[in-house]
Every structure is written in structure tokens, then in C-alpha cells.
Amino acid sequence: MGKVLVVGGGASGMFAAIWAARNGHHVSIYEKNEKLGKKLFITGKGRCNLTNACDMDTLFSSVVSNSRFLYSSFYGCTNQDLIGFFEEIGVRTKIERGDRVFPVSDHSSDVIRGLNRELNRLGVRIYLHSEVKRIETKDACFDRLFLSDGKEIKGDACIVATGGLSYPTTGSTGDGYQFAERMGHQITPCIPSLVPMEVKEPWVQELMGLSLRNVEAAVFDGKKRLYQEFGELLFTHYGVSGPLMLSASSYIGKRLSQKELKLEIDLKPALDLETLDKRVLREFEENQKKQFKNSVGKLFPAKLIPVMIELSGIDPEKRVHMISREERIRFVKLMKHFPLTLTGLRDYNEAVITKGGIRTKEIDPGTMESRLVKKVYFIGEVLDLDALTGGFNLQIAWSTAYAAGNHIVI
Question: Is the confidence at residue 1, as pLDDT, over 90?
């Protein structure tokens, strides 16, 4: 058995170390932070959405980039295997809405504690405040690590689990991309993903904090529809967020980084145009002597009313019975096609994950070993793999880590 050096002590690094150690290797983790699992600690708003308990078809369809690459690793360590592992190490789990899996305690610290216990049980050596500056290779094979304090550590294999660029305060500063490039790997350009978006319209600030549930959002580049989905949306002082828009960023991020896109929100997706018109007509008939601005209270949340009135083009002082059919139809269409202009993504400080990374064609999908340099393995977010919210990105981390940890032969 050999000496395995793991660069990065996040979710994938800890998990890979556990499996490499279970296979009899002498394993050391080198982590630049003061503790392991710093990013894992804040996932799921501190509750740690470990994985998703969906079926395999849903698991694969929730991966946005290079899902086919994950075939071996997802079947090698499935979401059910992952749940079983955590139960085995004393971290009980529960399944919530959308098949999201959380620890029963609702504390990510319990997940990290469970992983730490297992690392200690297996005798994995953990070096904190230990930043790897360079990965040295010799004859296209791993040779040694160089730390920032000048130390050299020789080893038989190296697992790179440095994460991406999202939440840089947790130590995700793109080190792994630099290591990979020095070895000759190509990097798919990186952008923030699962990230809020900015909009052009200044009145969006008036809607800050407003959450709209059960709406449908569609994003267009000209007449071409790039994304359409149903769910929950949140307005911020700069634009839009919430599950619906974070997922949208996975699909439209690259296009949005090059040009503005049009967002349309269907505020009443359960009603077609004709049915909605009848609903509005009923509302107008009940309030026909009122001014327009005082007649739509039952149709929208309070914060949205002034904006809807402004965009309708109808004089707010106008008596309802004076509103023409054309004006009413235009108002109904506004409710079905509430318009915003997306201007860009927020930065990595607000991004859940990084889109882009080491090209998967240069990595063995069964073992995560580099096809260019022997005994170097790349796992987790450093790879060009990303998925929707709901535990899917952590499942990528666990599964790729499992593949690496179980296929090191020295």
C-alpha cells in the first residue's frame, strides 16, 4: 500500500481520504484553512443538503454539464449508498421536500464531525494551515507536493480536491486549475453558477424582499427561449434570486456573460389568458366605482401593486368602469409576461458553485485519474461538472471522491 496525499479538506477531499484509507493506504490531507469542511459548513444555509434521494434518471437529468462522464461514479456510489454511509458513521438523515436529504439534526457541523471521526478512526493525518503551492511531476507521474512554507512531501499518489471559485472566503481560490494547467490540462472557462442575477430596471429595488411562489419564469435571447421553469423567485435590491433563478443561471450563465437577456415571469401560470381575463373582469366589476390603483389588491402582493400599475400604462386615478377592453387585455398580458432585462450574474461571493473547470475528456471517468499524468486524481468542483440545486452538486463531490479513493493502485 502507498502514501496518498489529498490536496484540500472539503467534502470531496475528506470522502476520498476515507475510502483511500479504508483500502489500506497511508493518507494525509493538506488543507489551507484552519479546519476541514469550511464550505460544507455553510451549504444548505448551514443545514447541509447532503444529496438528493431521487431516482437515477432524475439524478442524471439534474446534472447540467457533462452528465455522461458521471455514469461510472454515480453508479459506483449512488445517492442511496451515500445515505447508507452517513447512517453507518452515525449521522442520521431525513428526506424533505424535493427529495432533498439533510442530517436529522439540521446542523452541517454534525456531518463534518462524523467525517472527522471516521478520518481519525482510520488514522488519516490532517495538516491544517498547510497550503499546497505546487504539484511536482516526474516522467508524467506524480512525484511530490511543495507547501507554501517550503516543505516538500513525496508521495505515491495525489488527489486534487481544491474546489472551484465559489465562496472564495472558504478557500476556494482556483488553485486546482493552476495545478492542472501546469500538467498540460485544458480548463473550460469558469463562471459563477447557481447564482443570483442583476436586472436593468431600476424599479426592481421597490420589490426587494418580495418572494413569489408558484410562478413560471422564461428567459429569451431575442425570440429563442433558453429556459422555462416553474417555482419560487425572490426579488433583491439588484435583481432576482431564489431557486427558480439560481437554476436558470446554470443554463443561461454563459450567454448572459456575453449579452443582455429577457426574463418574463408568468405571475398566474395556473390560468390561461382567457380565464385570467375573466378573473380580472370579475375584480373590475366588483370595484367599478373605485380608482384603478385601489382595485387590484386581491390580484397581487402589496409590494407588487405599484409596479404593476406603473407598467400597465393605465392612469392610476382612472375609475375602473372607464378602463377600456384593450387596456384590460394589455393588463392581463402583463400578468402573464411580466418583463425584466437580465444584465449579468452576481460574482463568486454569492455563487453556490463554479461552472467550468478541468475538461472531463482528460480524466478517466472510472477512476478520476488524469489521462496526462499518472497517479494524479481530480475530483469534485475542480472538474467541469455542475448540477442544479437540491444536493446534486454534493453528490458529484461524493461520487467522484469515492471513485478516486477506491481506484488507487500502487
Answer: no
**How far is CA 365 from each of CA 186, 288, 358, 369, 371, rounded to the nearest angstrom?**
16, 66, 13, 8, 10
Please report the pLDDT score of residue 170 as a whole number. 84
Please tell me the distance from the alpha carbon of residue 53 to that of residue 78, in angstroms, as a whole number: 9
Strand duo 261-266 + 338-345: pairing? antiparallel
- Confidence band for 63, pLDDT divided at 50, 70 and 90: very high
Cα dihedral value 241, 242, 244, 247, nearest 10:
70
Q: What residues contact residue 230 under an 8 Å CB cut-off, 6+ apart?
A: 214, 215, 216, 244, 269
Name the grid cell of 144: 511530490
Same domain, 187 and 200: no
Mean pLDDT value across the chain: 96
Instruction: Point out the domain boundary residue: 346, 366, 385.
Output: 346
Nearest to 352 by CA among 253, 218, 216: 253
Q: Cβ(291)–Cβ(319) under 8 Å?
A: yes
Contact 193, 386 (CB under 8 A): yes
Cα-based angle 233, 380, 157 (whole degrees, multiple of 5) = 170
Number of domains forming the structure of the chain: 2
Q: What's the distance, CA 143 to chain centroid?
A: 34
Of 287, 277, 265, 264, the residue nearest 330 (C-alpha): 277
C-alpha cell at 85: 454511509
Judge whether 383 and 399 are in contact, CB under 8 Å.
no
DSSP structure class, residue 384: S
Residue 222 confidence (pLDDT) above 90? yes
Residue 241 predicted with pLDDT over 90: yes
- The overall longest dimension of the chain from CA atoms, in Å, is 86
User: Over the stretch 136-153, which tens digit does the pLDDT of each residue have?
Assistant: 999 999 999 999 999 999
Each residue of 349-370: pLDDT tens digit?
Answer: 999 999 999 999 999 999 999 9
* Residue 185: C-alpha distances to residues 64, 163, 324, 397 (Å): 22, 16, 64, 20
Read off the CATH number of the domain in which 25 is found.
Answer: 3.50.50.60
What's residue 194's pLDDT?
96
